[in-house]
Amino acid sequence: MPHEPSSNPALELGTLPEERRPEPSLLPPALDQDDAEVLAAAPAPPRRERTATVLLMLLTAIAAAVMAFALRGEARYAISPGQPVDLGDLAMLQPGGDLTNRYVRASGLLGTRGAIRYGRAAEGDSFRLAPVAGNPRIWIEIRVPEGFEGPRFVPPTSFAGRLVPLTQAGVRHVGLAETVRKQGGASIPDDAWILIDGSSPRASRWAVALAALFVGFAAWNLYGVARLLARVRDRAPEPQPAET
Predict the structure, then answer these.
(1) Nearest to 134 by CA among 157, 109, 155
(2) What residues contact residue 204 under an 8 Å CB cut-off, 6+ apart?
(3) What is the pLDDT of residues 138-186, one digit of tens each?
(4) How would you class 123 by CB atoms within 10 Å of its CB: exposed for 0-12, middle for 13-18, buried for 19 or more?
(5) Radius of gyration of the chain from Cα atoms?
(6) Is the pLDDT of residue 87 over 90?
(7) Is the residue at 214 inside a domain?
(8) What confidence score (pLDDT) does residue 11 get?
(9) Distance of CA 115 to CAs 4, 74, 124, 153, 161, Å?
(10) In this structure, is residue 62 part of a structural domain?
């Protein structure tokens, strides 16, 4: 049976009763206006907060990059060969560039002039720094286990660890020369070397992981800054043609 068109004009195509028509304000924006008009009507992002966020992310990226750069020496040492180089008596040693940041084994007696004792935050062990008797260019840092520090402590005469110029030792040894001058009453030569006893390449692998973490953190912040600045450029209004 053929369908006859409805006689009710309210049901004809494209017409609805007034009470059943959706209000214009309830229609999706895409049906009322173009996307450009929607973006233009959107409130502008807060400029002060955005600028503060960009500056904070830049400072964080710079700080992370500086820390990664400061750990470069220890990270390189961590991937060096694990077999120590035998140097013999430290009193006769005059190290050169070929021994920089190397895992070495040597022997010698520690002097008392300028020797100091210190600790580090979050570590129960203490540390002693003393020059080699007869060779003021070589200084030894030895770790004293917790509970063994005292007047009866006898320093060792054989050492195995990282040999490096004091100026390249890393962030954990910054300010040692000044501490020796103030507490030990002696001056460390500018070309002094330090042998960090007990520091093997395997034990220094934490530096590789930490340096990689700082590099990734710096890259992530720089990426975030680039994204923020790209959004600002996208939202910049297009220049209007001059009226004639």
Answers:
(1) 109
(2) 74, 77, 78, 162
(3) 999 999 888 787 777 788 899 999 999 999 888 888 888 888 988 888 8
(4) exposed
(5) 35
(6) yes
(7) no
(8) 47
(9) 110, 24, 20, 14, 19
(10) no
Using a cut of 0.90, tell me whether the model's pTM lies above it. no
Higher model confidence: residue 217 or residue 186? Answer: 217
Instruction: State the residue for tokens 């005292």.
Output: 150
Identify which of 210, 199, 216 has the alpha carbon closest to the alpha carbon of residue 80.
Answer: 199
- CA torsion through residues 161, 166, 168, 170, sign: positive
Calpha distance 214→220 (Å, rounded): 10
Q: Write down the pLDDT at residue 42.
A: 61
Query: What is the per-residue burial (b if ≥16 Cβ within 10 Å, else e) of 156-193?
Result: eeebbbbbbbbeebbeebeebbeebeeebeeebeeebb
φ, ψ of residue 239 to 5 degrees: the values are: -65, 135
Tell me the three state secondary structure of residue 126.
Answer: strand
Q: How many domains does the chain have?
A: 1
Residue 101 domain flag: yes
Which residues have C-beta within 8 Å of that of residue 169, sequence separation ≥ 6?
A: 73, 176, 194, 196
**Is 185 part of any domain?**
yes
Q: Per-residue confidence at 85, pLDDT binned at 50, 70, 90?
A: very high
Residue 74 buriedness (CB in 10 A; 0-12 / 13-18 / 19+):
buried
